[in-house]
Amino acid sequence: MTFSMKRVHAIFQKDLKDFSRNMAVSSIIFMPLILAAFYSRMGMDSIDAHYTIINMTFGMVATFVQCCLIAEEKEKNTLRGLMLSPATTSEILGGKSLLSFVLTIIIIFFSAFLVEYKPANIGVVAIAIVLSSFFYIGMGTLLGLLTKSVMEASFFVMPVIIVFSFGSFVMGFVDQYPILKVANYLPNIQLIDLATKVEVGAGFGDVLSNLGIIAAWVVVIFALTVVVYRKRMVD
Amino acid sequence: MENIIEVKALAKVFANQTALESVDFCVKKGEIFGFLGPSGSGKTTTIKILTGQLNPTNGEATVFGEPVSNLKKSSFRKRFGVLTDNSGLYGRLSIYDNLKLYCDLYDVPLSKINEVLDGVNLIAEKSKKVSLLSKGMTQRVVLARALLHEPELLFLDEPTSALDPVNTRHIYEGLRALNAKGTTIFLSTHDMHEAETLCDRIAFLDKGKIQLLDTPKKLKRNYSDSTITVELINDEKVVLPAGTEGAEQLFELMKDNQVVTVHSNEPTLGDIFVQVTGRKLA
């Protein structure tokens, strides 16, 4: 199986131009930055506050933007054009995910800068953030493939954003509703747990279980995405 | 001549509707093959099956000697091009940017963009945003995109449906030039004039089956009523049978200097279609 970076780059370049002219979707990426600026002024510098912004970036940029990019390709029938081209599944999905990935990392970087978040072990946190962004982009791709239009995608992606961006709030109700313990395994909760451990001196080996759970989510979401994508190749 | 497409007993059933019952035909390498039928006769379904976008319910279809399921492989996709009625262009991008993407996907040099745009008479508009183009111009961009990588086999689904006569002629010239370079063209249309102008062979599709398949010339000859119409100087028109009797009558009229024009009464492809299927192409 071949993998051409030229094709991936071509899809990325096209997406970048198209995205910059699509104000309805591109303006969304500023929301986490606005929240970060707000938190910074309020002096909120707890791990929970930092990761509310980071998880919101995952939801709004990695998932929402990605979902809209894919849904629009479907709605305008351009995805079929890509599918009929020599580009392979991995080249198309890779190219289509690159813009969301780059935007997510840039927004997280600037948000962290605004709230003055400096992880105790930047290497471990960076790995966890990159891994988490794969999950959220995969989620956006999957939802984009399952919906028929940008309008429908925007509607269906909202509950997902709420669960994964603000899921940490449900942990406050675990004592009342023990079933909510399941939420412990959500990637956003795992990321907060990992970041908290890192701040008290944990190294790579101490957070392997957190990384493993996030990686498992990535594997599941990508497997589902590839299956749905291949089904979408045929009417 | 080698067959580039072979279709045997191809059938497609959607839920409770039969789109193709049993379709058999082959397309020879290097020809322009016309696939004619009224709207809803299964032309687009056939193209979708032949390009790997739809799985058949029954039957066999091979393209380049490979089962159509193999067309999903990247290496085969470089060998064919598709133009369908759904534009599939990026509206916020310029014509040039749309074609640039496909140059990169097909490993075609960017210099090819000007060449294909010239061929579809859009070179002056290449910086225009696709969303600002008329339907006819959009159709020409889609065609330009399909021509970029000079495919061995080109599927065209109603390529000139939204075009004016001048642009239609441009497209015909472009397709003939492409065919002269060796591209086999599978042309789905309900435009009889288009089929007659471009195609080496024509298949009539109706009720999920191929009803007729031959060269336009042979079809016309086979369905001709073997008469001629003679227009006389007094504006009268006389229909004469072919053969000795008709020749003698024509000779007499010519001797008397009565004849203005003589026309052979060949049926049009539309007439033949109506005769064979009992319905009109629309």
TrEMBL record, chain A:
<keyword id="KW-0472">Membrane</keyword>
<feature type="transmembrane region" description="Helical">
    <location>
        <begin position="153"/>
        <end position="174"/>
    </location>
</feature>
<protein>
    <submittedName>
        <fullName>ABC-2 type transport system permease protein</fullName>
    </submittedName>
</protein>
<feature type="domain" description="ABC-2 type transporter transmembrane">
    <location>
        <begin position="56"/>
        <end position="226"/>
    </location>
</feature>
<dbReference type="GO" id="GO:0140359">
    <property type="term" value="F:ABC-type transporter activity"/>
</dbReference>
<dbReference type="GO" id="GO:0016020">
    <property type="term" value="C:membrane"/>
</dbReference>
<feature type="transmembrane region" description="Helical">
    <location>
        <begin position="207"/>
        <end position="229"/>
    </location>
</feature>
<dbReference type="InterPro" id="IPR013525">
    <property type="entry name" value="ABC2_TM"/>
</dbReference>
<feature type="transmembrane region" description="Helical">
    <location>
        <begin position="51"/>
        <end position="71"/>
    </location>
</feature>
<feature type="transmembrane region" description="Helical">
    <location>
        <begin position="21"/>
        <end position="39"/>
    </location>
</feature>
<dbReference type="Pfam" id="PF12698">
    <property type="entry name" value="ABC2_membrane_3"/>
</dbReference>
<feature type="transmembrane region" description="Helical">
    <location>
        <begin position="92"/>
        <end position="114"/>
    </location>
</feature>
<feature type="transmembrane region" description="Helical">
    <location>
        <begin position="120"/>
        <end position="146"/>
    </location>
</feature>
<keyword id="KW-0812">Transmembrane</keyword>
<keyword id="KW-1133">Transmembrane helix</keyword>
Automatic annotation (TrEMBL), chain B:
<protein>
    <submittedName>
        <fullName>ABC-2 type transport system ATP-binding protein</fullName>
    </submittedName>
</protein>
<keyword id="KW-0067">ATP-binding</keyword>
<dbReference type="InterPro" id="IPR027417">
    <property type="entry name" value="P-loop_NTPase"/>
</dbReference>
<dbReference type="InterPro" id="IPR003439">
    <property type="entry name" value="ABC_transporter-like_ATP-bd"/>
</dbReference>
<dbReference type="GO" id="GO:0016887">
    <property type="term" value="F:ATP hydrolysis activity"/>
</dbReference>
<dbReference type="Pfam" id="PF00005">
    <property type="entry name" value="ABC_tran"/>
</dbReference>
<dbReference type="InterPro" id="IPR050763">
    <property type="entry name" value="ABC_transporter_ATP-binding"/>
</dbReference>
<feature type="domain" description="ABC transporter">
    <location>
        <begin position="5"/>
        <end position="232"/>
    </location>
</feature>
<keyword id="KW-1278">Translocase</keyword>
<keyword id="KW-1003">Cell membrane</keyword>
<dbReference type="GO" id="GO:0005886">
    <property type="term" value="C:plasma membrane"/>
</dbReference>
<keyword id="KW-0813">Transport</keyword>
<dbReference type="GO" id="GO:0005524">
    <property type="term" value="F:ATP binding"/>
</dbReference>
<keyword id="KW-0472">Membrane</keyword>
<keyword id="KW-0547">Nucleotide-binding</keyword>
<dbReference type="InterPro" id="IPR003593">
    <property type="entry name" value="AAA+_ATPase"/>
</dbReference>
